[in-house]
Specification:
This protein is mainly alpha-helical and about 210 residues long. The protein has one domain: Serine Threonine Protein Phosphatase 5, Tetratricopeptide repeat. The protein has ten helices and no strands. It starts with 9 loop residues before the first helix and ends with a helix. The N terminus is likely disordered.
Amino acid sequence: MIVISEPGNAHDCAAWMGRVIEACRDAIATEENRLCDLDRAIGDGDHGTNMRRGLEALASERQRLSAMPFAEAMIAAGTILVMNIGGAAGPLYGTLLLEIGKGLSIDGLEFPQVFQKAVTAVAQRGRSSPGDKTLLDVLYPLSDELTKHTHPQRLAGKVQGFADMTIEMKALRGRASFLGERSVGHMDPGAASCALLAATVCRELTEAGVA
C-alpha cells in the first residue's frame, strides 16, 4: 500500500483514509481466490486468505485509524497487519506501513524519500533483494516511480507490469525457493497482492484529487 499525500483538513483526511481502507479490503476480497491459486502453484496456497484476514482486521479499525494523525495511523495500521496477516507477508506489509509512519513523523522528508526508506526496511526484514521473486519486485520499481513523481493515475496502470515481471524469475527466497527452476513461469503471490493494493490506493488518490 502507498500513500502520496493526504487531504488538507482532518475531516477530509478521515473520510479519505476510510475509503482507502475499504477499497483495499474489497480488492483483496475480490481477488482472494486468484491470490490463493498463485500461492498454490509455488507455496502453500493461503496467501489470499491471509491477506483477506489482514485487510478485514484493518477495515474493522478504520474509524479509530481515521481519527488519528496520519503518521500515527500508518504505524497503527502496520501493527494491525503484522498481527493479522499470516505467514511471511504480515511482517513485510506491516514493516512497510510502520516505517512509512515513522518517516512521515520526520520533518523535511518528502514522501518518495519516506517510501524508499520503508522499502529498504522491508528488504532488510525479509533478507531479500530485487530479483528474488518477492513483493520487493513491485516495491522497488514503485519507489523509483514515486521518486520520478509519476502521477498516481499512470502508476495505477503500471504496477501490474511489475508483478508480471516475477513470472519469469526463479524464486530465491521463501517457500517457493525450494522449487528452484520449477518456480519459473508463475507469478509471485506477494508481488500480485502488492500490485493490487498499490493500484487500488493510486486510484483512490486520483479520484480524491489529493495526489
